[in-house]
Design a protein that fits this description.
The protein is α+β, with helices and mostly antiparallel strands. The protein has one helix at about 90-110, and strands at about 15, 20-25, 30-40, 40-45, 55-65, 65-75, 80-90. It has a six-stranded antiparallel β-barrel with strand order 2-3-4-7-6-5.
């Protein structure tokens, strides 16, 4: 399907994730990669790992000190980043990540508190 400007194709809202890293395992490669954004359906990582679209990867990261391990499929590879779609995730984990993303979006949309 061709891309149409201004039309959002993502199923889930995503949030920028400063200071969040993940361990990415793919084939014989592993790396700690910054997560640039996260949604209930997937994530984007900064990395130069030699990955290909369609490749399966295992991702481990923490949210609120709770370890999360998911399997994903690489859906986009750029020069210095890649994106995955989550494949295997429990319903409870899906809801947990969804709640976290919505909370982060709410915090990001609030105006900064005034300082004196």
């Amino acid at each position: 399907m061709p891309k149409r400007p201004g039309v959002e194709r993502r199923r889930y809202p995503r949030v920028t994730t400063p200071d969040m890293n993940a361990v990415v395992l793919a084939r014989a490669h592993s790396s700690v990669c910054p997560i640039t954004n996260l949604s209930t359906g997937g994530a984007r990582f900064l990395s130069k790992l030699p990955l290909a679209c369609g490749e399966s990867v295992n991702i481990t990261f923490e949210i609120d000190r709770i370890p999360i391990t998911v399997t994903g499929m690489v859906v986009r590879v750029d020069e210095d980043a890649f994106a995955i779609s989550f494949l295997e995730m429990s319903t409870a984990m899906h809801h947990f990540i969804q709640r976290l993303v919505l909370e982060m979006l709410k915090r990001a949309s609030r105006p900064p508190e005034p300082t004196d």
